[in-house]
Amino acid sequence: MSESETPPAATLVCVKCKQQMVPAKVTASYLGNDFPIELLRCPGCGRVHVPESLANGKMLQVEQLLEDK
Amino acid sequence: MGSPRVVTACSSCQRIFRERLPDARVDSVWPLLAEIGLPTSPSPPRTPSLAVHDPCAARSDPDVQDGVRAILAKLGIEIVELGHRRETTTCCGYGGLMSFANPEVAGKVVERRIAESGADYVAYCAMCRDNFASKGKRSLHLLDLLFRGADSDPAARSRPTFSERHENRARLRARLLRELWGEESAGEGQRMNLIVPPEVMAVLEKRMILVEDVAKVITHAEATGEKLEDAITGHLIACHRPVTVTYWVEYSLQTDSVVVHDAYSHRMQVR
After folding, report:
1. How far is CA A23 from the centre of its chain?
2. Are β-strands A12-14 and B228-230 bridged in parallel, bridged antiparallel, or unpaired?
């Protein structure tokens, strides 16, 4: 969960702020555990994009690991 | 409603009512029907004999097991008894929510059970019937034999998707409210025209995401403007966390409809 999950050719735009999403350090939290991670974030409103590959990949693995603990 | 008599078709429901509401009168519909008589428009099966599958929740209830067999006998159906039956019946693959916790093991449990007889199965638990049907086993619910439905061959019916099951429940509830209590259900008639292509529907099913959850995300995004746009595909991407799961949906707005391209979810929170 610590490496960069930013899609290489990011072309996401925040519709509300009309700004391009840029890589930023954010925190993923679950069951009292925090994981620093780099994801695309809107510089205006701070909205973060979680890509499908992360949600169904490492994020799911970590969720299941923590739930089984 | 006072203290109504509760009648259940589902043995798990009956067990829970008896455990949690010991003062309520709770009966299974099966011995009751065997006693008071069957509906007048039964729907005969395609085959003269059916193998009975007892659900795990009816293991310790011989009255229910007998009632089911009495109904089948009244319908003139030849009963095939499986090796594991009544108090030693085996799991259909749903018990302990196995199909959610460990789909692979659950799949093997279903396959083992359906291999016990070549006859069509008749179950009296909806989850059992649907689990057998999910592996292509011709299976009926006992109610299919008692009430003629829209299907000409209900044993061939596939398992409903999670969304269809949810939709069926909502529709039944609305119908009962309307026909028995003269009430309209809230939220009816306000649906968005959501187009979910079959390949996306299969993804939702695998990820256990309801179409209703997808609609909530889009409704939230369109009401608040909180959404992203992929400049290459032109698709909109939005998320919403109604309770403890964040749902993401990728979609496009058409003139009078919304096309869903993908959906996924996670439980972690990201800030």
Report:
1. 10
2. antiparallel
Q: Which residues of chain A have a CB within 8 Å of the CB of B265?
A: 55
Interface predicted TM-score (ipTM) = 0.90
Spatial distance between the Cα atoms of B250 and A50, rounded to a whole number of angstroms: 12
Domain ranges of chain A: 13-68
The per-residue pLDDT of chain B, averaged, comes to: 92
Alpha helices in chain B (DSSP H): 11-20, 29-36, 62-74, 98-101, 103-114, 126-134, 142-146, 162-181, 198-206, 211-224
- Tally the residues of chain B: 271
Rounded Cα–Cα distance for residues B144 and A4 (Å): 54
Task: Tell me the whole-structure pTM to 2 decimals.
Answer: 0.77
Dmax (CA) of chain A: 42
At the top level of CATH, the class of A13-68 is alpha beta
Q: Are B221 and B236 in contact (CB under 8 A)?
A: yes
Chain A positions in Cβ-Cβ contact with residue B227 (cut-off 8 Å): 15-16
- Contact flag A28-B269 (C-beta cutoff 8 Å): yes
- The C-alpha atoms of residue B57 and residue B11 are separated, in whole angstroms, by 5
Nearest CA in chain A to B101: A64
What CA–CA distance (Å, rounded) separates A2 from A9? 20
Strand partners, B121: B51, B139
- Tens-digit pLDDT profile for residues B8-43: 999 999 999 999 999 999 999 999 998 999 988 778
pLDDT digits (tens, 9 = 90+) for B97-111: 998 888 899 999 999
* Spatial distance between the Cα atoms of B47 and B120, rounded to a whole number of angstroms: 8
